[in-house]
Amino acid sequence: MSEVVAAIVAHADDEALGCGGTLAKHVASGDSVYVVFVADGTGSRSEGQSEGALALQQRQRAAIDAVSKIGAQSPIFLDLPDNQLDALSLLEVIKTLEPVLTEIDPTIIYTHHGGDLNIDHRTVCQAVMTIFRPMPSSGVKAIYGFETMSSTEWRFDEPRAHFTPNRYVDVSNTFEKKVAALRAYDIEMREFPHPRSIKAVEALATYRGATVGCTLAEAFTVLRQVDF
Hints:
Oligomer: single chain
InterPro entries: GlcNAc_PI_deacetylase-related (IPR003737), LmbE-like_dom_sf (IPR024078)
Pfam family, one: PIG-L
Protein name: N-acetylglucosaminyl deacetylase, LmbE family
CATH class: Alpha Beta
GO molecular function, one term: hydrolase activity, acting on carbon-nitrogen (but not peptide) bonds, in linear amides
Number of strands: 7
Structural class: alpha/beta
């Protein structure tokens, strides 16, 4: 039986960095995959209105290209303010996100690790866990948290907030699609040794794979998993 998979992320490129290979693997298995971008990803960087509009269009075109390389459905953009989700009430974020997720009606969800340095990542994770709180009528089988290079590993306080994976997905056969998606975000990628570089992403996948005895892997925390 095929699944309905939703990757709910703060910014365009988070999905490719965190779970691009896994999403491509879902697509290859016949699952329907959706990607929802909550924040616009550019608002905190742009100085003028015209500059901001141009940057947003460029980022969204890159996201559409990246998601298509993974094989997912056309992405959904909510365009909440970048790096300012904490300036909104959690209820505002939920009210924007919940109708979209109700329509998608996912059975498997991927979202941010709740301890990331980036405040938008933490807010999205909290909103997802609130929307999909375990009600008797819920059809959600699993919620997984992924790591995002240049955010997850940069968290410097609270040891309990550090990313400690307990689920690994072998992405040896779909890693090329992850890299193709990342290359669509050339405006966001950096040169090694920056963590958001192709070489660093490959190194992380190699390490995660070696941890569990495969060539390349993506790692997750199990936020919830229910066997029906």
